[in-house]
Amino acid sequence: MKEINAYVSQLEVPGTRQFSNKVARYDNCVDLTLGQSGFMPASYIKEAMIKAIEENQLRYTHNKGLLELREAVSDDIYRRLNVRYDAETEILMTNGGSEAIDDVLRTLLNPGDEVLVPVPTYLGYEPVIKLLGAETVYIDTTDSHFVPTGEAVAAAITERTKAIIFNYPTNPTGVTYSYDEISALVDVLSQTDIFIITDEIYSENVYDSPHHSFMEFPAVRKQLFVVSGLSKSHAITGARVGYVLAPAELLEHVTTVHLYNSICVATPMQYGAISALKYGQEDVKRMNAAYVERRDYLYDRLVKMGLPVIKPQGAFYIFPDISAYSSDSFQFANELIEAVQLAVVPGKSFSDLGEGYIRLSFACTMEEIVEACDRLERFLHDYPK
Ligand SMILES: Cc1ncc(COP(=O)(O)O)c(C=O)c1O
Questions:
Q1: What pLDDT, on a 0 to 100 scale, did the predictor assign at position 160?
Q2: For residues 40 and 44, what is the distance between their CA atoms, to the nearest angstrom?
Q3: What is the CATH number of the domain that holds 357?
Q4: I need a labelling partner for 73 at 20 to 30 A (CA). Which of 93, 227, 313, 326 fits?
Q5: In a domain, 199, yes or no
């Protein structure tokens, strides 16, 4: 037989999956690997999906998605950021944030292009970049509290740089970017012809101050692709509803890629998403209040255990530094699950610059977090330093 695609054969199963798959092998395992809310989806979302099915809404929609849904996204962005994206021409509904990332990167990249990626970050970008024959260039954020600086970005740009991908609030660190930090990045990038991709899928999950976005800066709007979706904010990861926001002309190209990829998002799911955006604001607040309580507890316990850690301001992850115990986060996480049946994600899953850290999710229940902390404390107590 012929060889499969050379790029595909280089891809590995992500660390998040490797460790969540291990959970089933242990009795009584506490699972802090989750990248999704433990809350149940709201009844008004499910009812809208069911109603759509009962009313035979099972045909293709417009490739960009139902106009009513795009209008709901446009209104939601306006409500949160006071910025208007046009529902007809600047918004594309996709199958989750994942398809949004894939469509945008496939729209932009040629083999040999470089994509700047501040790391540690979400592990979903690099494989797509690789599949396109392009190259990921890391920007180390470990010395700037996981936020890339304008200087670091400027220093990484070369002739071959095609795009930069930001993700904030950041998976796996939980840090987010302030208005001033974004402004400093805008100052650099608005002077270039590089495309900016900003993955703001956790923008509704912010805990201490309102979310700010590159969307608030007109100077970069012409080069800006925003990736987001409802998976995390509305606890509907399985519904697969995401979106891309971009200038009309560029979005037409992304739409072409999307239509050859999946034609449209499943129609009943689009109806559920309309309902989520219309009626979900109170529930988002209620879930966030619970995450804050869990974050605060987890953060305090980790500090008491002596692990250096930044208090997350968004998403539902915390990223303690375990380098005093181990310089091999995969080995550490393996030993942790074997010794005390606690599953976490090794920091190295989020690039080599995540080595020396582990990611813990606080999207689970408070009881699980308390139990996880007790187990981690016991494990560290017995761990040879
Ligand atoms: C930063 C980030 N972007 C995108 C995604 C993918 O989102 P979706 O489930 O909507 O495809 C995830 C999922 O974990 C994520 O953490």
A1: 98
A2: 12
A3: 3.90.1150.10
A4: 313
A5: yes
